[in-house]
Design a protein that fits this description.
With 347 residues, this protein is an alpha/beta fold. The protein folds into 2 domains: 234 residues, Rossmann fold; 76 residues, Orthogonal Bundle (Arc Repressor Mutant, subunit A), CATH 1.10.10. 45% of the residues lie in helices and 17% in strands. The protein is built from 14 helices and 11 strands. The protein is elongated, with a radius of gyration of 22 Å. The protein starts with a strand and ends with a strand. The relative contact order is 0.15.
């Protein structure tokens, strides 16, 4: 089933807060850029520490050869290779991976003329297998969600853009009830409530994250129309056919496919007929920076999340499995990092 694009005039690519009125967008861009540089540097250091670069210096290798030689899971090795490829350290030739010319020059410059490159790389101590073979658990994904929630402030302009996009394509949230599952800092639901005076929001998340969300809600004075329930959004009992809209922000991507379908099915059941599910997160689409997508995938894997950054077509397949029909999506580009907004209605 095809995923339809939102109308072009709903993207509002130039929509953002005025720099003269608010310094947040400029600060958010600097913060996000520093975060990407930091995570890329960690990936490069990891490649050095486990001997990946040294192993590839003599010539191209396949992912199976790399995984066997370095004793790392193949899926983790592939995620690391993707980050290195988009960062310019690795080149891919069909199924083979090799160091780039830049990397080879770097290694030559960093080594003594009397010290063979292979000996140089062997000086790095490999990380233990247990440090790389992190078992994905719900508890670890909650730690990841908490860290991401602390960064949600960088999406203030994106959240405002999402509100305008939803109105622009007649998915207005006025005079409706919105259920937010795992909203973290609730930056997006707060923006929706602010732009829609009759919208009432119910947010379900851990008590610790709801305390962060409460600060967000109070900062724009919509607390009278925002209520919270401290519980697991994955497991709490939800009423049937209760809400007009349901919001998932960065919650779907951390779930493996079976768990993701279950979560979407819970959204389906709690929505009124004709109700709308709104998904906001990164998507693996050509519009978005491939390095950011690769870094996010590696970060989630290293921090114990079972899911991945999916394409909109992959999300559509999950939605179909949960009973939904065709979705519409479009990029949100007002903030420092591009994420996508996907909307689908319950039949």
């Amino acid at each position: 089933m095809k995923v339809h694009r939102l109308p072009e005039n709903s993207r509002l690519g130039n929509f953002q807060l005025s720099q003269s009125q608010d310094n947040v967008p400029n600060l958010a861009s600097k913060y996000h850029s520093a975060l990407i540089h930091q995570r890329t540097a960690k990936a490069i250091q990891l490649a050095w520490d486990i001997g990946l670069i040294g192993y590839l210096l003599p010539g191209p290798k396949t992912i199976d050869e790399i995984a066997s030689e370095l004793s790392i899971p193949a899926d983790l090795g592939m995620l690391l290779l993707q980050v290195l490829k988009y960062a310019g350290w690795i080149e891919q030739y069909v199924d083979d991976f090799a160091v780039s010319s830049m990397t080879r020059l770097f290694c030559q410059a960093e080594n003594s003329e009397t010290l063979p490159v292979t000996d140089y790389w062997s000086r790095f101590q490999r990380q233990t297998n247990s440090q790389l073979e992190i078992e994905a658990t719900e508890a670890l994904s909650e730690v990841y969600r908490f860290r991401e929630s602390l960064r949600q402030w960088v999406w203030a302009a994106t959240a405002k853009q999402a509100s305008v996009v939803l109105y622009d394509v007649s998915y207005g949230l006025e005079e409706s009830s919105l259920l937010e599952l795992g909203g973290g800092a609730s930056v997006f639901s707060a923006a929706f409530a602010y732009c829609s005076p009759d919208l009432r929001v119910t947010s379900i998340d851990t008590r610790q994250l709801l305390e962060i969300a409460q600060t967000t809600i109070q900062s724009i004075e919509v607390q009278e129309r925002w209520s919270s329930l401290p519980d697991s959004y994955r497991h709490v009992d939800l009423p049937l056919n209760k809400y007009d809209d349901c919001l998932l922000v960065n919650s779907l991507k951390i779930e493996a496919d079976p768990s993701a379908v279950i979560l979407l099915g819970r959204c389906y059941d709690t929505l009124n007929p004709g109700g709308r599910l709104v998904i906001i997160e990164q998507f693996d689409e050509p519009e978005f920076d491939p390095l950011e997508i690769a870094i996010e995938g590696l970060t989630m894997r290293m921090e114990g999340c079972a899911g991945r950054v999916r394409s909109t077509l992959e999300v559509q397949q999950l939605l179909t499995g949960a009973g939904f029909g065709a979705a519409k999506w479009g990029p949100l580009d007002a903030g420092p990092t591009a994420i996508g907004l996907l909307v689908v209605a319950k039949p």
